[in-house]
């Protein structure tokens, strides 16, 4: 009797194991594509364009009063956001509180070699006012090549060492390629961190393969803000007593980097005469819309305007530190509004307009972003 029960139990175990094997075999058989039955049409993916939808748009907003002082007492209810004319719901609202991830781009061209001591002196200002106690930063140098001097770190000593170790290189200035690489670095940072690029260099580019408009498209989609501290080759030449030539033109002779002004014909003289009052917002939008076009004039100003940042030209040595300090002060007093685009997911350029229900204030933010269809 005992032997019979043992045999029955053994048969049950074998049956169970056989069942598991059958299930495993069926599971293996269903891996990969399943062949359609005869006479049944194969279902194909839709041939219509697939639209790339932006999940979250972060808009940095700086508000100043009629005395140019920062306004710091606004609430979420005080702001109104329009995306292509459609009012949006503000999902999150913050005033300079989110942790920061910054990439510092430093030009090391031989043309600005005389200014590098002043750039190195700004290291401690950068860590104290821009990075702060909760931020992280990476440091890159560029001339005719691009050098990663320090990976992302919160260690102030390492950041300052990378800045103070910057050495003069050759006469190139691949600004756009350096910006593109910085955008790539910041994409890997967590989405809950503010992403910032600070460029300390000439407002010129030589030799880049990237186009500024395409770089700005990617920066806008990654919610990256660009700040520029412009170095002057004239100031550098005065300091070392040499006559240094500026960078080679970014466009062929007789061509121009931006659209003509309404009712005017572009000539070298007209461009020089109107350089001081150029509409940077219009030029920034034009550059992003026409991503493959060449932007010859004001590239740092255009990059800052297109992303909601700030550009400061420096001429005297001491103003480099002041410029970096001003950027840090603005970052600590900047509002960040986030929204998920509603009823506004069409491909193409999206204009962002932000207003505040307080009279007499000036509002600065990024003018928009470009959404491609695939």
Question: What's the SSE blueprint?
Answer:
Blueprint: H1 2-29, E1 57-64, E2 79-83, E3 86-87, E4 90-95, E5 100-107, H2 116-121, H3 123-131, E6 136-142, E7 146-153, H4 156-164, H5 175-187, E8 194-201, H6 212-221, E9 224-230, H7 233-240, H8 268-274, H9 280-289, H10 299-307, E10 311-313, H11 319-332, E11 335-339, E12 348-356, E13 362-364, E14 368-371
Parallel strand pairs: 5-6, 5-8, 8-9, 9-10
Antiparallel strand pairs: 1-11, 1-13, 2-3, 2-12, 4-11, 6-7, 12-14
Helix pairs in contact: 3-4, 3-11, 5-6, 6-9, 6-10, 9-10
Q: What this model shows, in words?
A:
It contains eleven helices and 14 strands. It has two domains: 57-92 and 337-371, no CATH class; 99-242 and 280-332, Rossmann fold. The N and C termini lie far apart (74 Å). Helix 3 packs parallel to helix 11, helix 5 packs parallel to helix 6 and helix 6 runs parallel beside helix 10 (299-307). The longest helix is centred in the first third of the chain and has 28 residues, at 2-29. It is α/β, with parallel strands linked by helices. Helix 6 (212-221) links the parallel strand 8 (194-201) and strand 9 (224-230).
User: Helices and strands: which structural class?
Assistant: alpha/beta
Task: Give me the Rg, rounded.
Answer: 28 Å
Query: Mind describing the biggest β-sheet?
Result: 6 strands, mixed
If you consult CATH, what is the topology of the largest domain?
Rossmann fold
Beta-strand percent range: 15-25%
Strand order of the largest sheet: 7-6-5-8-9-10
Low-pLDDT parts are 1-52, 242-256, 261-275
Count of beta strands: 14
CATH homology-level superfamily of the largest domain = von Willebrand factor, type A domain
Estimate the mean pLDDT confidence: 80
SSE succession: HEEEEEHHEEHHEHEHHHHEHEEEE
- Described by the principal axes of the CA atoms, the overall outline is globular
Q: What is the domain tally?
A: 2
Helix content: 25-40%
Tell me the CATH architecture of the largest domain.
Answer: 3-Layer(aba) Sandwich
Q: How widely separated are the two ends?
A: 74 Å
Give the C-level CATH assignment of the largest domain.
Answer: Alpha Beta
Alpha plus pi helix count: 11
């Amino acid at each position: 009797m005992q032997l019979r029960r043992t045999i029955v139990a053994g048969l049950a175990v074998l049956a169970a194991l056989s069942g598991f094997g059958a299930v495993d075999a069926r599971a293996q058989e269903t891996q990969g594509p399943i062949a359609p039955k005869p006479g049944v049409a194969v279902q194909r993916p839709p041939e219509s364009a697939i639209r790339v939808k932006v999940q979250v748009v972060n808009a940095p907003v700086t508000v100043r009063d009629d005395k140019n002082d920062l306004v710091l007492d606004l609430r979420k209810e005080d702001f109104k956001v329009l995306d292509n004319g459609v009012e949006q719901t503000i999902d999150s609202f913050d005033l300079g509180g989110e942790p920061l991830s910054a990439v510092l781009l430093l030009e090391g061209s031989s043309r600005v070699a005389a200014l590098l001591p002043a750039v190195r002196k700004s290291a401690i200002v950068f860590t104290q006012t821009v990075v702060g106690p909760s931020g992280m930063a990476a440091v890159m140098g560029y001339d005719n090549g691009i050098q990663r001097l320090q990976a992302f770190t919160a260690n102030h000593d390492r950041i300052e060492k990378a800045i103070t170790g910057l050495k003069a290189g050759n006469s190139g200035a691949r600004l756009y390629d350096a910006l593109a690489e910085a955008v790539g670095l910041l994409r890997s940072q967590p989405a809950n961190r503010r992403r910032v690029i600070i460029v300390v260099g000439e407002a010129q580019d030589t030799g880049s393969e990237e186009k500024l408009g395409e770089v700005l498209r990617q920066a806008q989609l990654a919610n990256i803000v660009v700040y520029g501290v412009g170095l002057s080759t004239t100031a550098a030449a005065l300091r070392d007593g040499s006559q240094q030539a500026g960078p080679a033109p970014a466009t062929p002779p007789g061509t121009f980097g931006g659209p003509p002004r309404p009712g005017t014909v572009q000539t070298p003289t007209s461009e020089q005469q109107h350089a001081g009052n150029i509409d940077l917002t219009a030029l920034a939008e034009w550059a992003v819309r026409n991503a493959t076009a060449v932007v010859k004039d004001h590239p740092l100003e255009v990059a800052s305007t297109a992303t909601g940042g700030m550009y400061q030209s420096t001429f005297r040595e001491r103003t480099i530190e002041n410029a970096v300090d001003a950027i840090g002060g603005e970052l600590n007093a900047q509002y960040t509004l986030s929204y998920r685009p509603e009823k506004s997911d069409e491909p193409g350029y999206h204009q962002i307009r932000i207003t505040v229900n307080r009279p007499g204030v000036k509002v600065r933010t990024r003018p928009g972003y470009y959404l491609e269809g695939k």
